[in-house]
Amino acid sequence: MNYEARIKQIVEIAYDRLCGKITGQRIKVSNEASLQLQFASILKTIGELYEETPNEIFNIEIEKNVTLSGGTFFKSKTDKAKIDIWFSLENVKSGEKHSCAIELKYFKKVNYREPNNRYDVFKDIHNLERYGNFVDVGFLLVATDHSHYINQQKFSEDTKDFDFREGQSYSAGTELVYRTKNPYGPPIILKGSYDFVWRPVETGLSFLFVPVAPCE
User: Fold this and answer.
1) Looking at the DSSP assignment, which residues form a beta bridge with residue 102?
2) pTM for the whole structure
3) Closest CA to 191 of 162, 169, 212
4) Which of 12, 68, 82, 118 is most buried, most CB within 10 Å of its CB?
């Protein structure tokens, strides 16, 4: 199995175990920071199991600083970004190295911040698509205890473009526009196409997990 396939397998298993542990109440995530910590811990445990030779090393970082050469990131409007969770598998003898970026969001019903939260999800996907200089694969993980994001009947005309409800999809190249009098942010256009499928866990949380292919 090549490095990229192993990285994807690490993430998929870690995500499944994260959901399982939350469902079984073995761990509790109450905000984005605790979600980041618990997911990174599971990724580290599983990732180290994928070190197959004495020359292979699994590395993981939280809030990894990256700098884009010759461009800017949508979120920061600068050439700098922080990846919520970054990890790699590296062969120190051959120099071969492959890595992954994961961006996280945690939306609590009590901290209702709409429709800006929906915009921020697509902003994170836009950043992930620009991480091609730093990683080979990317993922977005959204957690929420609010059904508004999952099965709301409809959104307002001004912000309906920013829609990742259960069963919805985004087609590459579609312009997403915030049509209020004072827009929260400029239009967003993504390079990839995405399908949105939510996974509920028994503690009242639901998760959206979206693979994102980074490009240069």
Assistant:
1) 85, 139
2) 0.95
3) 212
4) 118
